[in-house]
UniProtKB/TrEMBL annotation, chain A:
Protein name (Swiss-Prot/TrEMBL): Tungstate transport system substrate-binding protein
Residue stretches making up the PBP domain: 31-267
Organism of origin: Methanoculleus thermophilus
Top-level taxon of the source organism: Archaea
Gene3D superfamilies on file: Periplasmic binding protein-like II
TrEMBL record, chain B:
Keywords on record: ATP-binding, Molybdenum, Nucleotide-binding, Transport
Catalytic reaction list: tungstate(in) + ATP + H2O = tungstate(out) + ADP + phosphate + H(+)
Similarity annotation: Belongs to the ABC transporter superfamily. Sulfate/tungstate importer (TC 3.A.1.6) family.
Keyword Protein biosynthesis appears in the UniProt entry: no
Record localization: Cell membrane
Organism ancestry: Archaea, Methanobacteriati, Methanobacteriota, Stenosarchaea group, Methanomicrobia
InterPro entries: AAA+_ATPase (IPR003593), ABC_SmlMolc_Importer (IPR050093), ABC_transporter-like_ATP-bd (IPR003439), ABC_transporter-like_CS (IPR017871), Mo/tungstate-bd_C_term_dom (IPR008995), P-loop_NTPase (IPR027417), PstB-like (IPR005670), Transp-assoc_OB_typ2 (IPR013611)
GO molecular function terms noted in the UniProt entry: ABC-type tungstate transporter activity; ATP binding; ATP hydrolysis activity; phosphate transmembrane transporter activity
Descriptive protein name: Molybdate/tungstate import ATP-binding protein WtpC
Enzyme Commission code: 7.3.2.6
Biological process, per Gene Ontology: phosphate ion transmembrane transport
Amino acid sequence: MQQRTIFAVTAILVAFMLICGCTGTTSDQTPGEKQQLRIATTTSLYDTKLLDHLTPIFEEKYNAELIIVSGGTGKAIEYGQRGDVDVLMVHDRAREDAFLADGYGTNRRVFAYNYFIIIGPESDPAGIKGMDPEQAFTTIREKGMAGENVVFVSRGDASGTHSKEQAIWKAAGFNYSTDIQGSGSWYQEAGTGMGATIAMANEKQAYALSDIGTFLAYKGDVDLVALVDEGDALLNVYCAMQINPEKYPDTNTALAKDWINFLISDEIQQEIASFGVEEYGQPLFYAAQNDWEKIGVPQAEVKDPVL
Amino acid sequence: MIELEGVRKSFDGKEVLAGVSARIERGEIFAVIGPSGSGKSTLLRLIDLLDTPTGGAIRINGVDIHANREESHRVQRMMGMVFQKPAVFNTTVAENIAVGLRFRGIKEAAIKAKVEEALAVVGLAGYEERRARTLSGGEMQRVALARAMVIEPEILLMDEPTANLDPVSVEKIEELVVRINRDLGTTIVFSTHDMYQGQRLAHLIGVLMNGRFAQVGTPREVFTHPASREVARFVGIENIIDGVVVASNGTCAVDAGGVRIRTRSPLTPEELVSLCIRSEDLRVTPAGEATTAPGKNTLPGIVTSIVPRGPFSRVTVDCGITLSSILSWKVVDNLGIREGSHVAVSFAEESVHVVRRG
Amino acid sequence: MYEIIEGFLEALRLIITLDPDVMAISLRSIIVSFTATIFASLIAVPLGGVIYFGSFPGKKSLINLIQTLYSLPTVIVGLLIFLLLSRVGPFGFLRLLFTPTAMIIAQTVLILPIMIGLTISALSGVDPIIRDTLRSLGATRFQLLANTMKEAKFAILAAVALGFGRAISEVGAAILVGGNIMASSFSSSTRVLTTAISLETSMGNISQSIALGIVLLAIALVVNFVITTVQHR
């Protein structure tokens, strides 16, 4: 009967699907089988494709498989707190400190840094080109609230970039929740990733704070330019840390340590320093290796391998 | 074989069957006739165990069929039912007929043979692979009949089986009903609102009115001696006159609105009665030609209307009471009867059927 | 406008040259949603039958609830399954988070209400006289259910098609429980068409997004075509 054959074919397909679809369990420690390392990171880092570049090198060397999920910094930290990953890679010093203090993370190492930039329309209606970051922010706010055609688009999503933005507002002497948020139509919160925020700023011909990596990736597609790219306040430091095995004993500790050490190894530090030159004419990151003083972190975090 | 004992059924507080009682013998054809909505379908559904009565009992071979689950299931398997709407499944004719056999776990080879046989009986040989939903109404109903019969039921129930069919199909189905009953001895209970169908096919008729059997009897009894006014009206007696018994000694005299009518029924004076006279029993003659005779009622009157009815005419006469007769056109012409003509209406005493009122 | 045309052309190129990433993502979408649909059908169709034919207190409320869940937002289902499968959650020990299996589970849960509800609708659409006929032919409860389903099979099949459509086009649950991972092995990755479109769009890769969008529509089209053909046999 026709119905019988259809049923049989479906049953076989189902069996096939189940075999395909149900694989993907995590760290199996059987020797010979590939081990998996789960990493949570921010979209800022992920979207630069640095990790895609480094992954094959690591995977071959250690016969492993990297499972990388990305989201806003807040989301990545959440994954870390819930023990759903083995390694956390973010760029928000303050929140990282809290994470370590609460015992969720351990063995933090800084492996790269770059600078945030304030981008805006070429016409620069607020005239902030070349200013200090705090001064630029103050000017934008002033002009924006005065009703001039000045708009600032914020990440508004509790990401590392957003935290950095808030830090700059604070350094400029403002109370974020009272003076900035909701203070006028000049300040808009996108609530989305870096790329989409840049696109939105482009649409509105507005100002925004962006990491250099994402901006370079979008540069050709938008009419915005980098107006302020110097100042300590714009420092963007990336770290990687293990999820604490004391809190979550079944994380893949060995491979996590391997990955972190891999990142700060000489060979990979050089890879990082040269990443992006071919495509954008300038590197997207600086290797942290020798610049611990410049970026204000202990030497150990940059140099010492995890044991 | 089937005993209905005071069967009651209510739906949402509304009582549809208010105590139905009857006795159907094995091998009989029993017709349930009654006006629309009188509960005929409900009664059949109760017998087929598709519903449960709210009161009373239905016994088959002495056993209450609603008493327990297993009994019900066993009994249901020896009954077949055909519904008013042809309910065929969306598959082939052969598959339709085979459904009941499959439920009983009959082997494939046997199924094939039985289906073929059943189709032959209902006159649809060779229809096995046709899609059942593409057949005409009459053909679908015959498939439904074959489907019910192929499981060899002892009782066949049919709920207004020919209600929506063309006359040719009706005839075919009626033929099959008679044949099935005659050749296989199947007890058949069917409902119909066509009283003539009941008359044609049934051994026994139950007239269902107001939730009860107003009368249970042979076709002749029901049609010529209706048990009540309502039954009389339902079986098509046009002349029903109310009156009071005046005198009684062998022949009875009934005073009906001033007019005196003599009948042959034994009654007591002062009884309230209804007189039922069939139109066919009334003769109309021009006033001058009428003759009186013993054993005959003759009433003078004036023709109030002549309404055509097929090849006949319904002649209504006011004799103090309203009587109507059926006469052929020819007779009407020959007698020169017109509206306003003075005529005499005559009928035998025996043709007056008396029914008690109140 | 130019951007759209450019993107469209690039999309065709990716499809025609069988770009490996696009192929892998598409295949995964199909496998995940297809499996979810099968699982959901195996649960929903019999369950729908049992609910329809059953008589129990609260039956109406249950059906009402099921119909309310039709519009269950996908992110809520995603969040729920995420919380259940997360390592700190009750089923964390299964280690299913960020795997295709988690996505299958989420999609199955997502389309269950709609498939149960539509099965019940399909069965209600069968003339009650069919039910009477089956019962009078002596059907057991199971035979009654099975045969009524046969009568309703077109409508039930339509429900299955709808379920698949909803599963393959949802994004919220897939991204929450899957993580939109592109790993080096096929079976460890969880990126599907919808989540990939979301990502590519947010990164500004319009042509890639359009390509994936075309593939998604094409799949939906093919599935519908197959279902309608089967229905007309």
